[in-house]
TrEMBL record:
It comes from Hespellia stercorisuis DSM 15480. GO terms for molecular function: transmembrane transporter activity. Keywords: Cell inner membrane, Cell membrane, Membrane, Transmembrane, Transmembrane helix, Transport. The chain crosses the membrane at residues 24-42, 54-73, 80-98, 104-126, 183-204, 236-258, 270-302. It is found in: Cell membrane. This is Erythritol transport system permease protein. Pfam families: BPD_transp_2. The lineage of its organism: Bacteria, Bacillati, Bacillota, Clostridia, Lachnospirales. Its main location: membrane.
Amino acid sequence: MANTSTKKAGNTNIVMTLLKGRTLLILAVLIIFFSIATPNFFTINTGLTVAKHVALYGIMGIGMTYVIITGGIDLSVGSVAGLAGMIAGGLINQGLTLKMFGVTVYFGVPWVMLIGALTGVLIGLLNGIIITRFNVAPFITTLGTMNIARGLANLRSGGATFSNITGNEALGNTGFDALGKSILGIPAGVIILVLIALVAAFILKYTAFGWHILAIGGNTKAAKLSGIKVNKDVTLVYMFSGFCSAIVGMISAAQLVASHPATGEGWEMNAISAAVLGGTSMAGGVGTVGGTIIGAFIIGVINDGMTMCGVSEFWQKVIKGIVVIAAVIVDQFQRNLQAKMALQARNESK
């Protein structure tokens, strides 16, 4: 009996180890598969293309990770990206017209980026206030702000595109397109992703705020009783998510050298997928920035790999949906297995 129990425990530990390392395992399998399926996949040019996309998914996914850890969801991220891109593109091409003074003000790129980022932060603030002060479910709240942001993006230009957003030297607003270029061969978006990831990971692991949002996701009532200012922290989390989305919108606009109001449609799915594939639990209380980055790589490899293999966009959506559902099922299985192992450990200690 003892040998049987020991064998079962060993098998359980092996399964748990595989579950914990599943993200890296999946990524490795995908890279090998697409390298075999299409000869041009495992090349430097393809790698740089994937990296550019991963940067967008990763930055947005980091903000989503914070939100999901608190037990929430943010469906507005794609629309916020589109709105921030339109705000930035409009400021560069058209400036800000002050009708009462009869003048048009053009801002330098740092100010354009700041205004674009603040746009995302304000949408996040709105989400946080509605969720915490009016007790509206995050799904409903962000579904509403998703449509608000998308509508504002279209209203900004009447549904038209701001093209050639390179600025004018005479107006002192050139350089925005640098966000879409490379520095020493590394895409600027990847550098921004690394910087945001390092800061976000440090906050989550080593600061009181990070511990608080993990506690909120684990047990909101207990967090309140322990003195954590739940409403304030949750609002800050949604503001951070809005900030990340706005940064993504501006990077995307810079890469295309154009702003389109439809930018970001469906990107909330990529952000959620990156977080969930990276081990962030939809039940809240569990998640890491590093895991989300790996999840973003998986989404990037799947998207670009399937495109290079000639898989239609419609089938890509079906496959990504299946991947997300599978990830949630595996996460639930892991949680149940961990609970079972903890119970067995307590019984053996008695």
